[in-house]
């Protein structure tokens, strides 16, 4: 029988955000672009995205409280998530750049199509798209946790995802044919 150690005091972690960021960087994540349509469309790169439930079909994403996208999602009924493919690092960097143009102009630098269920921009060539209705939002420290009910989805079979690990964009290593790694 093992004994679990007590969690470190909060100040031990909060006092060194760089160390926390490095430790969290040990967890590889996918890379997405979250979008909202309408008269002033908005996009943002996010890697805090995951499934919540299969029935009902729910996904979540976490957005910094000070991000424009956080206010945009709070006011929108729907949003979309494009899971970027391995060759789309430039798209991820574009939507992470805070100096990019606002509104529709930020989409001029990328290929996209309007979502059928939400009209939110979907990044062309992405590994998968999820169109969602806002379902719930929860406080999460310096972020807000947005949960969406999936209205529509599509995927490009065989498309390798773009991955973020250790503070860098990466590709998934190909597996050897006919056997285990």
The first-to-last residue Cα distance is 33 Å
Looking at the overall shape, the CATH architecture is Roll
Number of strands: 12
The biggest beta sheet reads: 7 strands, antiparallel
Shape designation: globular
What is the CATH topology descriptor? Pnp Oxidase, Chain A
Spatial strand arrangement across the major sheet:
3-2-6-9-10-5-4
Which CATH first-tier class would you pick?
A: Mainly Beta
- The run of helices and strands is HHEEEEEHEHEEEEEE
- The number of distinct helices, counting runs of at least 4 residues, comes to 4
Low-confidence stretches: none
Count of distinct structural domains: 1
Q: What is the topological layout?
A:
Elements: H1 10-14, H2 17-24, E1 29-30, E2 32-36, E3 42-46, E4 49-54, E5 57-64, H3 68-75, E6 78-83, H4 89-96, E7 112-114, E8 121-123, E9 128-140, E10 143-155, E11 162-165, E12 168-171
């Amino acid at each position: 029988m093992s004994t679990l150690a007590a969690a470190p005091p909060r100040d031990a972690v909060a006092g060194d955000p760089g160390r926390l960021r490095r430790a969290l960087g040990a967890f590889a994540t996918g890379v997405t672009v979250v979008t909202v349509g309408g008269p002033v469309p908005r996009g943002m790169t996010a890697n805090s995205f995951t499934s919540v439930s299969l029935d009902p079909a729910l996904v979540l994403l976490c957005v910094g409280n000070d991000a424009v996208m956080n206010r945009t999602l709070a006011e929108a009924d729907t949003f979309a998530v494009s899971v970027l493919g391995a060759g789309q690092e430039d798209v991820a960097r574009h939507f992470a750049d805070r100096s990019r143009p606002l509104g529709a102009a930020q989409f001029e630098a990328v290929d996209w199509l309007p979502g059928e269920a939400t009209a939110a921009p979907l990044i062309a060539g992405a590994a998968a798209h999820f169109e969602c209705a806002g379902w719930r939002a929860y406080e999460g420290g310096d972020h807000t946790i947005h949960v969406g009910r999936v209205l529509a989805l599509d995927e490009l079979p065989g498309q390798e995802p773009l991955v973020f690990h250790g503070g860098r964009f990466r590709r998934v290593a190909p597996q050897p044919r006919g056997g285990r790694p």
